[in-house]
């Protein structure tokens, strides 16, 4: 797809009917609070309700008509798979209504990239879905949540966001759910899209996209949340490192996992002892996907020299955590053959 530049700016004077945006709150730092306003680490996540989050952004009423729901109040490090299913089903139900023009989800930063990518694959609508979050709790000096929430609603209300899949609006930038990664433990620009960069930006009511999303997503993806909601395939992540042994692989196989994602070194390379154990796992029917522990780049398929012979799958540009999401969905859809899985990873 060719680079694109699209923008929307609110009308300055003529009356208009504002778009209706559903806001689903799940907790996280954006809904966190601490007794000391100078404290940005020792706080309790998910304790501030969605009504208070919206009240901290008075200008939001000039952007959209808001319908808010409190879906959960958790620290996203504790995100359960059952909540993923609940959230995805609620998103699809809301977007199926003619009364809803777009949707925003407030989320914790720890697992935001995983939730966003899951929704990118199972939401079945072209209407905008935008996740946002915060690095500082709502009680902090210079809290970043209100501006991020305003930006997310502005993006969700923009016609330019339609058909772009699930997006993340954070620190004035707009990212694709597939590309975005958390890259800092403390900075307010903690989310980036390594290698590829942001899709565009949002500021002062203006939304601009510099490029579009190329890979299939949402209605263009075959994955259905109902296929996994009642039984997520067991998929775990292990890491390759100096002195790695086969202990973890053997334990996971014995526990009955259906898939293993390896966070390999460099180009997804794997310690020889670990590789032997993973080859044995494949022979026992476990799907193995090679990703990388490196923060950017892609994992090249090794072909006949390694992957074909061992039955491994390359994650491509997906990091281990997103590769796990895709592998769970693929296995739930009945795709367990290495060739089938490789095609899926090459496509989505």
UniProtKB/TrEMBL annotation:
Substrate binds at residues 76, 109-110. One of its GO terms (biological process) is asparagine metabolic process. Residues 235-345 form the Asparaginase/glutaminase C-terminal domain. The active site is at 29, 29 (o-isoaspartyl threonine intermediate), 109. Keywords: Hydrolase. This is Asparaginase. InterPro entries: AsnASE_II (IPR004550), Asp/glu_Ase-like_sf (IPR036152), Asparaginase/glutaminase-like (IPR006034), Asparaginase/glutaminase_AS1 (IPR020827), Asparaginase/glutaminase_AS2 (IPR027475), Asparaginase_C (IPR040919), L-asparaginase_C (IPR027473), L-asparaginase_N (IPR027474). PROSITE patterns: ASN_GLN_ASE_1 (PS00144), ASN_GLN_ASE_2 (PS00917), ASN_GLN_ASE_3 (PS51732). SMART domains: Asparaginase. Residues 20-212 form the L-asparaginase N-terminal domain. GO terms for molecular function: asparaginase activity. Belongs to the asparaginase 1 family. Transmembrane segments: none annotated. The keyword Chaperone does not apply.
